[in-house]
Specification:
Rossmann fold; 2 domains; three-stranded parallel β-sheet; 8 helices; ABC-Purine-Binding; ABC transporter substrate-binding protein PnrA-like domain-containing protein; PnrA-like
Length: 260
């Protein structure tokens, strides 16, 4: 983000957009999306299909973006299966197939029978499939990496926003206002559930998606307990987007550490 900001300052007549950033300039905006909504839906599917009640999560880095997706995944699973636990292993890389595979195998060896990876390669999905475990990736539909054992995963739809930005630049109406998309505007979604996922599970996921779309379901509405057992969000309260984007704690049921 800072690199983009520095370049933007050197070329004030050029418009820049940064994904997931939080700093802007006169000629630099930011955009992202509530991908935690997709993670929550993936969690619902995972919470039902697991037979061991242990879900594995390969996280890239211990930053809020990854942490709130882990928590959303866990909350989705726990909404249909209170016994579901999520074990987290950090790969500390955005892309390293070997490291990610090792992390995935360590979770499978621990007993996880559903895996999700945030960013990175397809090796987590492939490692899970080799063990007959369900797998979920991130960013885009990874069905081809495990056709028989694919669960689903949160996805991005960047095209409409890019088109909107280009038209705004051409029309001279572009602003640097931060943009945060969601399921409601199509910025984020989930991939189709895999062939082994029962129809009743698909219906539960579809029903939850409909509730998110109509506003009756908010992913981070309390009561939410943190891993220590203390109540972090009171019953009926909903976390602000600002607080979600600063999240540095795990919800109850998530096993892992967050290095400071």
């Amino acid at each position: 983000m800072d690199y983009t900001l520095n370049v933007a300052k050197k070329f004030p007549k050029i418009i820049f957009e940064h994904s997931a950033g939080h700093k802007t300039a006169n000629n630099m905006g930011t955009y992202f999306g509530k991908n935690f909504e997709g993670s929550y839906l993936a969690g619902i599917a995972a919470g039902i299909v697991t037979k061991k009640n242990l879900l594995g999560y390969v996280g890239a880095f211990p930053i809020p973006e990854v942490i709130y997706n882990i928590n959303a995944f866990a909350l989705g699973a726990q909404s249909v299966n209170p016994d579901a636990k999520v074990s987290v292993v950090w790969s500390n890389t955005w892309y390293d197939p070997t490291t990610e595979r090792q992390a995935a195998i360590s979770l499978l060896d621990k007993g996880a029978d559903v895996l999700l990876a945030y960013r990175g390669s397809s090796t987590t999905v492939q490692a899970a499939a080799e063990r007959g475990a369900f797998a979920s990736g991130n960013d885009f539909d990874r069905t081809k990496d495990a056709p028989d054992d694919y669960l689903t995963n949160p996805t991005w739809n960047r095209g409409p926003y890019y088109s909107k930005i280009m038209k705004a630049v051409e029309a001279g109406t572009w602003t640097n206002a931060p943009y945060m998309g969601s399921l409601a505007d199509g910025r984020v979604d989930i991939a189709p559930l895999g062939p082994k996922i029962p129809d009743d599970v698909k219906k539960l996921v579809a029903d939850a998606k409909a509730k998110i779309l109509d506003g009756s379901l908010k992913v981070f509405t309390g009561s939410i307990m943190e891993a220590s057992g203390a109540e972090k969000v009171k019953a009926g309260d909903t976390m602000s987007l600002e607080d979600i984007l600063k999240m540095d704690w795990f919800v109850k049921g998530v096993d892992g550490t967050i290095p400071k």
